[in-house]
Amino acid sequence: MVSASTKSASGGARRTDLDIIRIVICAAVILAHALLIFAAEPRYHLKAPEWYPATVSYEFMRATTMAVFFLVAGLATVMSLRGRSVKAYVSSRINRILVPLFIGIVTLGPVIKYIELSHGRNLSKRGIALVAPLDVDFLHFLPLYFTHSRLVTWSHLWFLAYLFAYSIVFLPIMVWLARRPAKSEMPPAFVVYLPGLLLAAQVVAFNGYWPFLPTLFKDPNTILFALCFLLGAMFAVWPGFEARLRQQAVGMVLLLAAAFSGIVWFGESLAGRVCVGLTAWAAVGASLALGARYAPPKNAALDYLAQATLPIYIVHHVPLLLIALAILPLAIPVLAKIAVIAGLTMVVSLALYHFLIRPMPPVRWAVGMPAR
Description:
The chain is mostly helical. The protein has one domain. It has helices at residues 16-36, 52-81, 86-107, 109-118, 138-147, 158-169, 171-178, 194-205, 221-237, 239-246, 249-266, 270-293, 300-315, 317-327, 334-357, 361-366; strands at residues 121-124, 127-130. A two-stranded antiparallel sheet has the order 1-2. The chain starts with 15 loop residues before the first helix and ends in a 6-residue tail after the last helix. The model has no long low-confidence stretch (mean pLDDT 95).
């Protein structure tokens, strides 16, 4: 969602395939949050009775979307550093990532936490606890949120904290890579599958993926996403690797189907964790291969949506939870509830972007958008 640059490795035309990938990821995350309400995963702000198809669908989203996002972010970081100074890059990361993170914690966090506690749930760095439902109104809760650190939440904005950490910690590596000439030689086909083994080994070694508690410092998935970020940086300096990967679209899709089936079959186990790493890499390979194959030409609608992904991601969670509160009591099938929650959230979030965020400079700044 956060785009540093989407120009090609040689600094040429904007890569519309990466724009499409970001747009799809943004929509997929909104759908994942709608699914999560009905999934078996207990760590969420609002829950309804479990529906198995939602559990499987959510698991697929979780195993694929963030790996792809962080890899694209690493690739875009090196591209960006080819055309700007380190100082300008760091300033951009502060404005694009850190400012929205803190403003989101202050403005969106209280609403999300209030909904969570009002429904007898307390999600913290230790996990989920069932508590007595909150019996105060929102205006009385608001001062509590700002005076009790244990109530403060970054909720879905965790990925901004992770991305900023990677952007700064790996900056020397990114700068070094940005100064290197691009390598056009294509490796043998089997080589493009090897990173999947690396990711699988990491997930197994650190007992990653389960449980999913994005606390940054104590989260084993921090390393998984960091590896994806660094692999993306490698793509930027070895376009021959990506060119070979693009030729493996069918293989990557087949690996994705097989590896995710393994997650569903084996669950939280050593074999399941191996499948998590393979699924993450296969999702990366399939996304880049198919994205390149079906990349649209540059157009106004694509530019509009590409710019909207970060603001929409930042603001979507509050509308989603409020819409879910209205939809859950309705006597309609679960699938219809998920479709309505996700669909309305996308519409409302896009409307907020178009009518509130996009035209107003202070709000643009608050969600990490550059001034017009």
